[in-house]
Each structure stands twice: as C-alpha cells, then as structure tokens.
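User: Before I run my own analysis I want an independent prediction to cross-check against. Here's the chain; please return only the structure tokens and, at the end, one sentence I can use as a sanity check.
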Amino acid sequence: MDLFTHVLVAYLLTFGIVGFQPSYLAAGALAGGLPDGDVIFWPLAKRFPILRHHGITHSILGVTIVATVGAFVAPYLAPGSPWIYFLVMEVAGLGHMLMDGFTHFSVPPLLPFSDRKLEVDADRAVNFLTLIVSVAAFYLLLGVERNRVPFPVYLDTVYGLMIFFAAYFAIRLAGRFLIGRRLRSLGPFSVPVPTTNPFVWLVLSEERRDGRLRTQYARYVLGRGITVGPFALNVPLEPDPATHGPVASARDALERSYPLARKATGVLDQTYHFGSAEPRGDGGWTAEWYSLEFTAFGRAAGARVSFSPDGTASVRSGWSRVRPEPRTG
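Assistant: Structure tokens:
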C-alpha cells in the first residue's frame, strides 16, 4: 500500500492502543512508514537480496529490531515508557507488513529464517481510493482541525476513519474469500485480480508455453457474477522476422505488436496485462497493450503500437484509456 495509508493506519492503531498521547502517536505513525525506508538500500540490494524492497524491513525480525531501537531512543526525545514505545512501534510495523501482504505485493514475514511469502491478493499494491482518503485525512487532522476544533470533533474524525478502514479491509477480505471459493465454477480462470473498486474483480488465467502467451479474463462483480467478458488472447512472445507488409486484421495487429510492446515497457512482464486493436481511417492499425493491475481513473500503464498502412510500426509507452470491451479478433 502507499506510504500515506501505512502512516495513517499506524496512527489509528496507536490511537486504539494508547488514546490521545501525542508522543506515542508520533512514534507509531513513524514506525508505520519506516519499513518503506528500505528504498535507501537499493544500491546494495543486488549484492545482498535481503535488503531489497519488501525484504528484511518487511519481516517480523526487521520490525522488532526497529521497535527495540525506538524503545531506547524515543524516551530521550519525548518522555514516555520504553515498553509503550516498543508496543506501539511493533504494532505499527507489523501492521505495515500485514497490509503489504494483504495486497498482491508479497512480503517475507519470516526472513531471514524463511523466504516464504505472505500474499493475500485482496487489494492492489497502490490503491488510489485509500491513497486519496489518507491524504485527505492528514489534511483534515493536521491542517483543518488541529488546534481549531473542539476535541470531540477530532475524536469523531478519528473514529470515523477507524470505521472506514475496518469496513474497507473487511469487504476486501470477504470479497477475496468469496471469489476464491467460486473461481473454479466461473470458467477456465486461475487467478482473482483486485481492482480499485473493492466490489469489482477480474478473474484471469495466463499461460506462457511454446513461445506464446495465452490469456483469458473477465470482469466479476460481487453479488452479480461475470458482467463483462470473457476475453481471450493468444500471441507470440518474440517477433517473427518473416512477418511484414500491411496489417490485415486485429489478430494480426496484436500478434505483431506484442513483442514490440514488451520491449518498450517492463510493466507488461511485471503485471497481468491484455491488449486490443483498432483500425485507423488511413488504412493503418493501432494496438494498445495495458496492465490489468497498474491502473487509475480509467487509464492503465502500457504501450501503444501504431502501424502505418504499409505495416511500419512505431511504439510509445505510457498511460492509455482502457477499452471496456477490447477488440481482439
């Protein structure tokens, strides 16, 4: 999850433990964001993989070391009990680890003793819904309300945020459980993919074999079932040197464009993705390849491949609007 949500949820967890105690709240909020400080280790991560992002700092051991150091240092900065400082920082750090594991971005909670992953696949690694709520909450708590409103108003805001996040995580977890139970009965799908909307999921299957990618996906809404799709693609992973000349169809555009799109952006190999193709008025074709996971506000990261009437291709990576019903054949 994003850093703002980690820090806000850590603040709320700390408030639930100690109430309105500013020193402890600050320590808990700080500890909630510290695991993502592992980005400073990226120059060393290739040599020491344990220092990678979502590595040792996202483990029980890493969180406990940070909380222990904080328990000794924090009382010198702001009076308080070392034991309470340790408690709130430990809970905040574990909360960060669990929230990341709650998404499709795995964490290794038992490092360095085991590299076994925690990955619930109940939410996106960065969900713009929680990001917007968290940024707005900080502006409200630290800007609009701070020293400006009666204390009960502040309490109502904090309790309201607690209710929101408790409900949000409960809906996400319930949705993941329900769709996981129904997955086999929905068709040839093997993976549930969360979207920004907690009530909307994608069900998907992906296979790479014999030098080709085979993908199927459909849109699933809790309580309604599959509402859009399924859609299917079967394209080569590498370009065919023998293919040239004008593009003849959407299938031809997709087969010729996919290897080019993969080369243009790494997001396609890092996430589940799909593509669609449309003819142009001048006799050319445009193929869009986009991530099904890295999306926001109706747009997705990926690449656009444009074919001129004679079949010459040009590629541009970036964000594009996702078609609700992709043209693949």
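Sanity check: The beta strands are 191-194, 200-209, 212-221, 225-236, 273-279, 285-296, 299-307, 313-321.
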